[in-house]
Design goal:
By secondary structure, the chain is α+β, with helices and mostly antiparallel strands. The chain has 4 helices and 15 strands. The chain has a single domain, classed as Jelly Rolls, CATH 2.60.120.620. Helices cover 22% and strands 22% of the residues. 42% of the residues are buried. The structure holds 2-oxoglutaric acid. 2-oxoglutaric acid (AKG) binds next to strand 7, strand 13 and strand 14. 2-oxoglutaric acid (AKG) is lined by residues 122, 132, 137, 151, 153, 164, 221, 223, 234, 236.
Length: 272
């Protein structure tokens, strides 16, 4: 594997103007042209490919197909790795990680040293990578806590409409969590979708490898299927304040459905 680029070679610093911060606050997303160097992108691709080839974290439930039923053995249309930093701690010592923290601190207007969180990786394989349907990230999160976070989505390949760049509904983060359901109405599929969206208002954000889009956990977002001949690799850092307990848990019945479906399946496995 290629050596990691030395820190002194790395230049882009993710400093935002006040106008960019205000754009994010108004619209719930922001596009940043570059937060790391080509050399680091190349190095990150090597780490990424190694983690997906090893299906890192599968035994602990951190590798799965976001777009298919848990544990299926067919072609994976949307493989995902949660917390890849556990398998590759060197990811935390990168320009991309440092700049993502800086972006999150600026967008949340909090000190950088209070920013915590971690990442996930979503791969859209060439030609058959599935869409990531319209959703709000907070719909996935524990109903017992409030998380003030920002997602910093970094493609390691050019992200175009055809390969699956991010698309957002401006201003949707000012609204409540919409009703979500599992893809295909199958609670064994982790991926969520909301039908309460008008895609006519979507703004697509094509960006180069090593750029970033940032979004608020309530911003409605989507990425299309990858119809190109190249894979679309994305590393997403979800960063911000530590979780705070909620006085009253939020209502997210789709999470209960998934838990029950997984319990029923493990009961069947045990009985088999
Ligand atoms: O990478 C994708 O296709 C979707 C990413 C996403 O939904 C997210 O980062 O919240």
């Amino acid at each position: 594997m290629q050596d990691r680029p030395a820190p002194e070679q790395v230049v882009p610093a993710a400093d935002l103007t006040e106008a960019q911060v205000q754009f994010f606050q108004k619209n719930g997303y922001l596009q940043v042209d570059r937060i790391t160097t080509d050399a680091e992108v190349e190095w990150l691709r090597g780490v990424y490919d190694r983690l997906f080839a090893a299906r890192a974290g599968e035994a602990e439930g951190r590798y799965f197909d976001l777009g298919g039923p848990r544990g299926h053995t067919g072609r994976e249309g949307l493989p995902q790795i949660l917390a890849p930093e556990r398998a590759a701690p060197e990811l935390c010592d990168t320009l991309v990680y440092r700049n993502a923290r800086r972006l999150a601190a600026r967008l949340l207007r909090c000190p950088e040293d209070t920013v915590t969180g971690g990442g996930h990786m979503i791969l859209k394989p060439a030609r058959y990578g599935q869409e990531t349907p319209w959703h709000q990230d907070e719909a996935y999160w524990s109903p017992d806590v409030v998380l003030e976070r920002v997602s910093v989505w970094v493609p390691l390949d050019p992200a175009t409409v055809e390969s699956g760049c991010m698309q957002f509904i401006p201003g949707s983060h000012h609204t409540e969590i919409r009703t979500h359901r599992h893809i295909g109405n199958n609670p064994l599929i982790h991926g969520l979708v909301t039908d309460d969206v008008d895609p006519a208002h979507a703004v697509a954000c094509p960006i180069p490898a090593g750029g970033a889009t940032c979004h608020h956990p309530r911003t409605l977002h989507y990425s299309g299927p990858n119809v190109t001949g190249h894979c679309r690799r994305a590393y997403v850092l979800v960063l911000g304040a530590p979780p705070k307990p909620r006085d009253v848990p939020a209502r997210r019945p789709w999470l209960d459905e998934e838990r029950r479906a997984l319990q029923a399946r493990s009961g069947q496995d045990g009985a088999a």
